[in-house]
Design brief:
mainly alpha, 10 helices, about 60% helix
Length: about 250
């Protein structure tokens, strides 16, 4: 669902506090579920990593992740969320800890929420998930959550920029150059090789990268802005994400 919001382009999908407030302020059950389904699709990875680092196995962590996200929807816990009281990542982690403290809330996780259509772990290969978990073997649960949260935010910024470029007819150019933005798993080819592939001068390619980087920073800033209480907190949150990634 794409919309034009405050300070955003037409390509931004509302996330985090925006969606929480939307879900809490609507009378429509379908709209509430739609809003929270988007949140589930975006943020299941940090939740799942936290659980795995708490020594839950593959299947238990999967069930608990689904149970928690469905519980967030069904109990309407989200309506108590107040963006003026902190960052969205802290709210979600606090809600998860509260959920785990109540064992009765997740003992029947598999039996609930059959009509909630967030992206399930079953669409991700076991090998991919195991590799994700293996990257955090030296990290505790909260550190793993924080790091994967940062990865999710960075990945979303790249994805949104990718979508913008596709709509602008620059898909091929962006995919050739996105390695220069630090995108995960992308090989960085020499400018000269890309120049031969695209019949575009090296000077032009360097300018393209500069523009992509500038737009990427703007998108990243907007993504972070939607997870904090005010504009004044954006820079601090960006520094926090950078520090987490630098570890």
């Amino acid at each position: 669902r794409l919309r034009r919001g405050r300070g955003t382009s037409a390509g931004f999908a509302s996330t985090s506090w925006t969606l929480i407030l939307e879900a809490g302020g609507t009378e429509s059950s379908d709209q509430t579920r739609d809003a929270l389904t988007q949140l589930c699709s975006i943020y299941w990875r940090p939740v799942y990593l936290f659980l795995r680092r708490r020594d839950y196995n593959w299947h238990d962590a999967e069930d608990l992740t689904q149970g928690f996200l469905v519980d967030l929807i069904e109990t309407r816990f989200h309506i108590h969320a107040d963006p003026d009281k902190g960052r969205f990542r802290s709210f979600l982690l606090g809600a998860l800890k509260n959920f785990l403290a109540n064992r009765k809330d997740y003992e029947h996780a598999q039996k609930r929420g059959r009509d909630v259509n967030f992206v399930p772990l079953t669409e991700v290969s076991e090998q991919e998930v195991n590799e994700m978990v293996a990257r955090y073997y030296r990290w505790n649960a909260e550190e793993s959550y924080e790091r994967e949260w940062a990865v999710v935010v960075l990945r979303r910024a790249i994805t949104l920029l990718d979508e913008e470029c596709r709509l602008a007819g620059k898909n091929q150019l962006f995919h050739a150059l996105k390695g220069y933005l630090g995108a995960e798993g992308i090989d960085v080819l020499p400018y000269e090789e890309i120049s031969r592939q695209l019949s575009r001068s090296v000077v032009a390619l360097r300018k393209d990268v500069s523009r992509f980087r500038q737009r990427y920073r703007s998108i990243l800033r907007e993504e972070v802005r939607q997870t904090v209480a005010s504009e004044n907190e954006v820079d601090a949150e960006l520094r926090h994400l950078c520090a987490v990634m630098a570890r």
